[in-house]
Amino acid sequence: MSDPGMPFVDLIVLVLYLAGMVAMGLWLGRRNQTPDRFMSAGGTLPGWVVGISIFGTYVSSISFLALPGKAVGGNWNPFVFSLAIPLAALAAVRWFVPFYRQRGEVSAYHHLEHRFGAWARTYAVACYLLTQLARMGTIMYLLALALAPLTGWSLVTLILVTGGVTIFYALIGGIEAVIWADVVQSFVLIGGAVACAGLLVAGMPGGPEQIVALAAQHGKFSLGSFGPALAVPTFWVVLLYGLFTNLQNFGIDQSYVQRYATARSDREARKSVWVGALLYLPISAVFLFIGTALFAYYTARPELLPGGLDMAAKPDAVFPYFIRSGLPVGVTGLVLAAIFAAAQSTLASSINCCATLTLCDLYRRYARPAATGREAMQVLRVATLAFGLGGTLVALAMIRVRSALDAWWELASIFSGGMLGLFLLGLISRRADNPAAATGVSLGVLVILWMSLSPRLTGAWAAWRSPFHNFLAVVVGTLTILLVGLAVTALRSRRRCGRSPAMPM
Length: 505
Description:
Blueprint: H1 8-28, H2 35-40, H3 47-58, H4 61-73, H5 79-83, H6 85-103, H7 110-116, H8 118-151, H9 155-203, H10 208-217, H11 235-252, H12 254-262, H13 266-300, H14 318-325, H15 331-367, H16 373-398, H17 402-416, H18 418-428, H19 434-453, H20 473-499
Helix pairs in contact: 1-9, 1-15, 3-9, 3-12, 3-13, 3-15, 4-13, 4-15, 6-11, 6-13, 7-8, 8-9, 8-14, 8-15, 8-16, 8-17, 9-13, 9-15, 9-16, 10-13, 11-12, 11-20, 12-13, 15-16, 17-19, 18-19, 18-20, 19-20
């Protein structure tokens, strides 16, 4: 049941969107009869479509709601993360895309076995699968938490609807349905964001100039401090964090690597990276502008905020409140559909990629290397259903045991942080071998664990806290894996040279 306060027109807009996603999955599923079509769309898609899909995967519903909240309570410091994306995209076009396209593998982690042994491949796959389960559950739960007061639906209903629709078109349509759905969802998302920004500007008593004046007066356009401090999110700290995180996304994340394989040529694959990267840059600015405009809007018209909603204390609640009370009928439904779109784009991608890795890196590696096409399709469909249901169950569990799953989400992120360093070690050093990689990953994960969890230490243990901001955990951890791996490789090379027989004079 919808909340009686939710206009019928908005409900119709939302239902039509969800029905459209189901219909798209059915239509595209007609051609989805082979593993190659299910996992890589037969390598037939144009670069602009793949690029918009990359953008859609990048923007989750949490970004849609969290970025405006960051700007309401703070400034444009998160935009520095976006500024790092073109640098990572340049590296992807120069090294990552050619690497994966030349190898012709759908899996992002298959090559790790050739470099460092089966443990490296299985380690990376296990980290990815577990992290994606936690990520899917987190997105579904937080989406439901944000939309429950807007729609009047219960958390359980919203989680089940989101999970059910996403599983259906991912199961029927495969990666092709996921990518084309990403295109539709991206346009819905952009339309909803632009509509909100435009209505906020139009609703200002003093026009757009008043937004700029109030924001500038309160330092809302600041990108952060340019000082040398490493314990706070300065411009440089966020830039480094953004660079390494985006290198991880474009370089080793299955959600991105699998899309490179769907492009119909190397040129189109490179184009897709630039389309996805350069599209996110302005849209993230739109999200932050919405937050800045919301701050100015309710500063200029404080009587519109309810008494219990303080922008400083609850910045994340301001945008959902505006969606519920400040948008005209019909536009609210569009924005709700946009939030659903952002969530489903990320969820469907995660489900399909998990199914792909289950077949390529687990089933074919350990169970049936010569699995037939029909058998492979059965594995893909069962894995799609299993991971979709798994993510939905994690989201439902979060309703009761939120703190425990928060801890798991943090630990999953910690262990996945070792994957980029492992990949870079194999890419940079041809001589790095299994012991060097294992040593580097072990120490790197310990460093990431220490930097992420040590701020919680109290009492006598407080002296062991990391002096760095948490954003730098992935930076320091990746560099630790790379440098330790290179050092171990150099030491082992010297020992081998020292044991070599003397050359005849």
